[in-house]
Design goal:
Blueprint: E1 15-21, H1 43-55, E2 63-66, H2 70-81, E3 89-91, H3 108-111, H4 115-122, H5 135-154, E4 161-166, H6 168-178, E5 196-201, E6 206-213
Helix pairs in contact: 1-2, 5-6
Length: 256
């Protein structure tokens, strides 16, 4: 009896994740907003969201997912509303900001004097915020959410592309995981307001396609005098200022 050849197993497709950080708010880069309610995009942030929507206009998105916080929901809604017949934005709490606990709402310059600040900078995997969660817990829930969304969308689409609007530290943690980096290395990654970071998850590995893409401008590539600090801004910072605009100095940055 002839042995019948086995039917080839269909190859699993690839899911492409677009990570978009929320646009600017009145406190971005100066205060650790965390889960503070009522933090909305300001005029600059709304303009950034519209620009991101234009840059993404040519992509067919299988889903638009957002952190539950207003600044992310508003950014995701601008992107969703700019699309004709695309998906509405949905919320997934696992993409919410790190729960900074007692640090929430405090100025970053003040927090930089706390002993825990050096742990957050040099050994973030060991950092737990008083009254809040650890950065390791933030990373674990966000990465688990990515895995869930990849599985869900790959069950419905061959090679889905989807967007998640989240926060600086959350995006950095997801990127570190995709690159196989220990969480202690995630402060080497930057995610500016309304930047686009793209990761393609294939059956064998993840590929980082773009990182902190803010468009065609070269703003921010060369630091202003005194701004090249070795500290990362907890929460993500305010990014490069628009040409001619004054920059608000946050922790981890020296005043001009």
């Amino acid at each position: 009896m002839a042995i019948q050849p086995k039917e080839p197993v269909p190859e699993r497709g690839a899911a492409t994740l677009l990570l978009v950080r929320h646009g600017l708010t009145a406190v971005t880069g100066s205060t650790l907003a965390g889960w503070t309610p009522g933090i909305h995009l300001d005029e600059r942030g709304r303009a950034q969201a519209k620009d991101a929507a234009e840059r993404l206009a040519g992509l067919d998105l299988a889903a638009i997912v957002s952190s539950p916080l207003e600044r992310c929901r508003e950014t995701a809604e601008v992107i969703a509303q700019a699309r004709s017949g695309g998906p509405d934005a949905v919320v997934d709490d696992r993409f919410g900001e790190c729960r900074y606990g007692d640090w929430t709402g405090r100025p970053l310059k003040e927090l930089a004097a706390e002993p825990l600040w050096r742990v957050v900078q040099a050994h973030p995997s060991a950092a737990r915020f008083p009254g809040g969660e650890s950065l390791a817990e933030t990373s674990a829930r966000a990465v688990a959410a990515v895995r869930d969304w990849n599985d869900r969308l790959l069950a419905e689409h061959r090679d889905p592309v989807y967007l998640v609007c989240s926060h600086g530290d959350v995006i950095k943690a997801i990127v570190a995981d995709a690159l196989g980096l220990h969480l202690d290395q995630f402060q080497r990654i930057q995610a500016d307001p309304c930047s686009i970071t793209a990761i393609r998850y294939t059956p064998t590995r993840a590929f980082l396609l773009r990182l902190n893409d803010v468009g065609e401008s070269a703003a921010g590539l060369a630091p202003a005098p005194g701004e090249a600090s070795g500290d990362a801004t907890v929460g993500g910072g305010a990014g490069a200022p628009a040409p001619g605009a004054a920059r608000e100095t946050g922790a981890g940055e020296s005043p001009r």
